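Q: Joint fold for the lines below.
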Amino acid sequence: MSAAIDYLLHLADNALVLGQRNAEWCGHGPILEEDIALSNVSLDLIGQARLLYQLVATLKGGDCTEDKLAYFRETHEFRNYTLLELPHHGPLSGYAQSDLDYGTTIVRNFLYSALMALLWEALEKSANADLAAIAAKSLKEVRYHLRHSRDWLVRLGDGTDESHARVQASLDHLFPYTQEFWVQSPAEAAAIAAGIGVDVTTLRADWDAIVDAALAEATLQRPAVGGYVTEGKRGIHSEHLGFLLAEMQSLARAHPNGVW
Amino acid sequence: MRSGVEAAWAVLEELTDPEIPVISLRELGILRDVRQAADGLEVVITPTYSGCPAMGQIEDDVKATLARAGIAARVVTQLAPAWTTDWMTEAGKEKLRAYGIAPPHQTPAGSNVVRFISKPAAAETVPCPHCGSARTVESSHFGSTACKALYKCLDCQEPFDYFKPY
Ligand SMILES: [Zn+2]
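A: Joint structure:
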């Protein structure tokens, strides 16, 4: 039971935090079509998070609800990958005219969607039937997120000198954070042992193939990685998550149980 | 004397989608079943996209329609098997086309991820719902809602939505 809850929260927090980040583009997209695309990707992610939180609330019982899980937990209780909470300015911190760098957004969505497309596909066989059902739906959605971000990665990478340099910088900035994917957390280990979760290291070769093929088409260099491995999925976050949650949770906390 | 199940089907039959009011929930495959459970009538609906903002409205519409007809039933949301555009009826697809939305193609066999991304989205022809031309191009993977992509017709020059296979 606890193994399932911790694992489901990891999946749910990933979807919610990236959904909230992508939603920052709503009304600020570089072009109208992309504004709409990112808002739709956000809706899918927040929808996936809701299904997962609802399942956790059912398993926990008592007065637990999806809203309590999303709005009334603290930073250290969130179990998302650190990659997903980083701001959109990426490597342009301090230099960007705006806090939003679309190349960074696209690279992150690509790296995460490539993983989740494989993970949701594998989770369709989870021993937890409810998780398997959510995985089947999420897979249909993430394939379009992957296609969208991959297309833009190629367009920006194989675009102008400026777009190439900027998206390469985003890639160099974000790629080290993907190391976290491959280091198993206690929650993942427990879920794998219970047949609920999937060992993501078994998906690594396929992830590498998807990433390398896209980078080659985009004429981008795969960065070498090393050094500190982030631990967001164990609750150890960057300074950025607190600000994201403060904005996301403020309304619910100012008006607890508000209905409109 | 009609059974409760038949009566519920009869009133729900004409209930349309809140965002695409020319197609019924049954034709879309959202209204899955009406059945007699041990403790009363159950109406089974299934969500389309996980984050589809219309789902709340759809549930409310189903409940209101049943209440207006004096039918007591519980609305149950069921995730598995996952909704697919392949459940859309032929009549429903024709209504979409007449409304100006290109109906979805059959979903590709198997869900293999690596195969899905390697196939370009534009590989399949999406005929223009206005003039029937096959000379169309995708302008964006996401249209006015998550379930649609934005296309443009190179003959009549009209933009249109394509209901994506899901
Ligand atoms: Zn046309």
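Q: Anything notable?
A: The domain at 2-88+100-254 of chain A is CATH 1.20.1260.10 (Ferritin). Chain A has a mean pLDDT of 94.
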